[in-house]
Amino acid sequence: MSIINNYQPIPAVLERIANGYASQRKFAYNLLPLYQAEVARDSYKVAKFGKDFLKTEDFRRASGAEPKRVKDNIEGWADIATYRYTVESAVDRGDMVTAEDVVKAGLLASERRLTRAYERLFNSIEVEQVKAVSDAAQYPSGNTSTPTGNNAWSHESSDPVAQIQKARQAVKSKTGFYPNKMVISDPVWQVLRRKDNLLAHMPMTSLKTGLTPEDFGKICQIDSVIIADNMVNTGQQLDFTWSKNVILAYVPDTIYTLDEPVFGITIRAPLGYNAMRSYYDDRTTSDVVAIDERIGWSVVNYEAGYLFKNVIS
Regarding the domain delimited by 4-53+73-308, which CATH topology (the fold level of the hierarchy) does it fall under? Predict the structure, then answer.
């Protein structure tokens, strides 16, 4: 008896999950935004930062002389490999026999299980991404800090805003751009939002409610402040994925092409016809939906970011 019989296209509702789940907001996308590639490849080339765009040019030319051409802000290219991930959901037909509508019940079960499988896949990828953006050894000199003692952000006299201003200048001096995104882990945010010397910048109404991310962004001159409160099951307990860290980075609001300078990126190859399939597994009497994803990601330009490590005690 065969294990796999009768490959078929997957139902439309499950195809929508496959096509749409990756686009749902993940905290890491704020630093490594999702780029939906149009062509599937084993690897993609992404631009590294350069400083040529800051140079001046004399565009005047004499009659018959060749014109000056605009140069991209590209120093080189980083190769980002994609990896194959297979997401499956299986529904045992035996579990559906008591349902009033067997087909509908099976489809709903497949929908729930496929969504759960995608959640685990992208949560796992995000944990890997957080490790990469939190690796102090990868950042250039002057782009990391571990505040301690009176400088720890949990200390009543510390000045996180002054530290963030220095971080902004560090990124600006290396790239020509100020960081426009700041991801703050939730344990850190719970300290900051009630910190007296930060509330002093705000109207009296904020004394009762605490700072909002928008308030903090205005104080620090950061366009977007994101509070990362997701957690990971380490096997023995739940831990905050972003630990006690804060990361600033320059990230364009929209990634149109891979030759745009960016702190990092997540690339998803398009789902081809053969990437989505359903079949019946004789061995387990189950209807199976399987989807092959090709995803790659990397921090391309660490100089475009700044890492504050373990900012609270």
Answer: phage-related protein like fold (3.90.1690)
- Interval 213-236: pLDDT, tens: 999 999 999 999 999 999 999 888
Residues in the chain: 313
Q: What is the DSSP string of 203-259?
A: -TTHHHH---HHHHHHHHT-SEEEEE--EEE-SSSEEETTTT-EEEE---SS--STT
Residue 207: what residue type?
Answer: L
**Which of 117, 48, 3, 61 minimizes the C-alpha distance to 262?**
48
Helix (H/G/I), strand (E/B), else coil: 183: strand
CA 120 to chain centre: 15
Looking at 4-8, 97-101, 237-241, 276-280, which range is the least confident one?
4-8
Do the beta carbons of residue 132 and residue 301 sit within 8 Å? no
Model confidence, pTM: 0.89
Strands 305-308 and 246-249 come out as antiparallel
The residues spanned by each domain of the chain are 4-53+73-308
Residue type, 20: G
Which residue in 225, 258, 294, 171 sits closest to 30, CA to CA? 225
